[in-house]
Specification:
By secondary structure, this protein is α/β, with parallel strands linked by helices. The chain is about 30% helix and about 25% strand. Bound molecules: zinc ion (ZN). It comes from Sulfobacillus benefaciens.
């Protein structure tokens, strides 16, 4: 049984500020170690549940955050940002997935550093009209490959959302947001012990979770923070302008819709402001 673990950073316990997740700061060096430790706890849980292999996909920012030399030596690591499946690269070769360090979607009450794909340019991301978190998008991509998401760990605002959208998935809150940039985190030992245990239980019970299936055709609607991003996005003829800030793409299935939407967002990010 092959396990993919996608690891973001804003949902790691103790993280509450931008400097902690951004390259070039002293805090960042400390928090990438904490990110690696949470990842190791999840890896231990996966192997305790009988995993044959574990692949970790670094899923934050530059996607070069996890300390390879401190990572559990039984796991393999995907790092670097240019990956077509982005945060779930590697899922094509997995039997089950887990998301660690995940955060609430953009515009969530008490969401810690809440955003969806890009904090700089996106207000909302909708799939077939429903506002989604990164965990929803990634679970849908996993579902395309018939891979269930057994566990999601991160901040509590995300878990309250996912309790509705991924009701079969095991959810673990490691911190409770007060504001976008403040939170109460569980103790370090509690977080690591819980992650290891919840991961083991989640992987053991993976057969009880149905992969997410979204019937095609699938639309992705992106509400940008500025109309200029939408203007740039519409250079692609496949992108439809919904209003000044909002664009929409449609694919025959979630993979096609994702590729169009991801290309749109990456193109928009090149806008000269
Ligand atoms: Zn991130």
């Amino acid at each position: 049984m092959r396990v993919l673990i996608s690891v973001d950073m804003e949902g790691i316990a103790g993280v509450t500020g931008r400097s902690e997740v951004s390259r070039g700061t002293d805090e960042y060096q400390r928090f990438r170690k904490l990110m690696t430790e949470e990842t190791n706890a999840a890896i231990r849980g996966a192997f305790n549940a009988g995993a044959d292999s574990v692949v970790v996909n670094d899923s934050h920012g530059s996607m070069r955050n996890i300390l390879y030399d401190l990572l559990d030596d039984r796991a393999e690591l995907i790092s670097g940002a240019n990956k077509p499946l982005c945060m779930v690269q590697g899922v094509e070769d997995a039997d089950v997935a887990a998301f660690i360090g995940y955060h609430a979607m953009a515009g969530s009450f008490h969401g810690v550093m809440d955003h969806t794909i890009s904090s700089a340019s996106i207000y909302h991301w909708k799939i077939n009209g429903n506002r989604v978190a990164e965990a929803d998008i990634n679970a849908a991509l996993c579902g395309f490959y018939q891979v269930p998401v057994a566990l999601v760990a991160g901040d509590d605002a995300l878990m309250q959302h996912l309790a509705k959208t991924l009701p079969e998935t095991r959810l673990l809150s490691v911190k409770f947001g007060i504001d976008q940039y403040s939170a109460r985190s569980l103790s370090r030992s509690t977080v690591l012990t819980s992650l290891e245990k919840e991961m083991r239980l989640a992987i053991e019970n993976r057969h009880m979770i149905a992969p997410v299936h979204i019937e095609g055709p699938v639309t992705c609607q992106i509400d940008f923070s500025h109309s200029t991003f939408a203007e740039t996005a519409c250079l692609l003829p496949l992108v439809r302008r919904v209003d000044a800030r909002t664009v929409e793409v449609a694919g025959k299935d979630i993979i096609e819709a994702w590729r169009l939407a991801y290309a749109t967002v990456r193109l928009a990010s090149t806008t000269d402001m």
